[in-house]
Amino acid sequence: MNKLKYLFILFLYVILIDGATINIFAQAAGNKVLVIAENESLKPSDIDKAIAFYEWAFAAKFTQSQRHEYQSIKLNEFRKDPTITRKSIDDIVLNYTQALARNEEEQSRIRQAFNEQFIGQLRNLPNDAEAKLLLSVYNSTHADETASNDAPDSSGSVGEISSLVGKWVWTHTGNSAVSTSGVYIGSNGSRFTYQFMPNGMVEFTGIINVMNGSCNQQIFKSRKGKVRLNSSTMTINWNKGTFTRDFSCDRANNYTKTLPAENETYQVKFKTDLGQKQLCLTDKDETCYSPIK
After folding, report:
1. Helix axes 82-100, 64-80, angle to 10 degrees
2. Quick one: angle between helices 44-58 and 64-80, nearest 10?
3. pLDDT per position as a tens digit, 243-258
4. Helix intervals (H) in 140-274
5. Does residue 6 have a pLDDT over 50?
6. Percent of the chain as helix, strand, coil, to the nearest 5
7. Each residue's pLDDT tens digit, 101-127
8. How far apart are the first and last CA of the chain?
9. Shortest CA distance to 130 belongs to which of 172, 189, 178, 70?
10. Cα separation of 259 and 220, whole Å?
11. How many Cβ atoms from other residues are within 10 Å of residue 205's Cβ?
């Protein structure tokens, strides 16, 4: 799995965290190199620092077996792609050291924002060993939160519109772009969000970000409408919306268009994946959205 999927989220917090990096990690005695490849090295302390970040973010502790498993995963990744693995750990540590320089209130805000995004990403990777491991660490202290998201009806039936109320998100992240001087430019990624209201209204926002060299193109879509639910069929009567294109290398041709009012119909159901309740909408293809607070 491409670890830059994860770094997309981590890079967001460089915006939130400023100030100088502080040296908080002491070198462990006998900190021998675990493996060397392509002039890159990986030490036990490097992996310990990454674990420390996740323990801070999740407010949870790795068990000894989980630490060993995480180390094994990182060593395998490093042997396959030492440069990317080395950079991913360095970036995690950079974000962590800068986060710890903030006061407790700011740390709590950053931690909460990170988990809202990152845990959803992990749940979208059910076949990835690292995602499974990190989810198990997170769930060790958030079991009650996970259980509260489970669907009460194993059939997946949606029932009343009240069962949809809340915010649901689907995200996908791709590679990040970094300049020759090492400055972060941007990332490829998409984020689609539905927010259902108790009165049957719904709001949708969609953002797609595409990097092409040093050029960054962002597409933004926003609309509101009214939901009708008939068994497992959901119809949304959309009002007029907006569609915006913003291309950093062609500012003269950027635009905002008005989307026409229209109706959309989906088959809708709930699923439970890795202990989390998901809202799945099917038109031609099925897309499952995770709840966010």
Report:
1. 130
2. 120
3. 998 988 888 889 999 9
4. 143-148
5. no
6. 35, 35, 30
7. 888 888 888 888 787 778 877 877 778
8. 28
9. 70
10. 12
11. 15
Would the pTM of this model clear 0.70, i.e. be above it?
no
Q: Determine the 3-state secondary structure of 292 from DSSP.
A: strand
* Predicted pLDDT of residue 7: 42
Quote the percentage of the chain above a pLDDT of 90.
Answer: 30
List helix spans (H) across 101-128: 104-123
pLDDT higher than 90, residue 232: no
The Cα–Cα gap between 241 and 243 comes to 7
Cα Rg of the chain (Å, integer) = 21
Q: What is the rounded distance in angstroms from the CA atom of residue 266 to the CA atom of residue 235?
A: 6
183: helix, strand or coil:
coil
Locus of tokens 């062609």: 250
Return the structure tokens found at 177.
Answer: 């772009």
**238: nearest Cα among 208, 209, 206:** 206
Residue pointed to by tokens 């674990």: 51
- Greatest CA span in the chain, whole angstroms? 67
- What is the overall mean pLDDT for the chain? 78
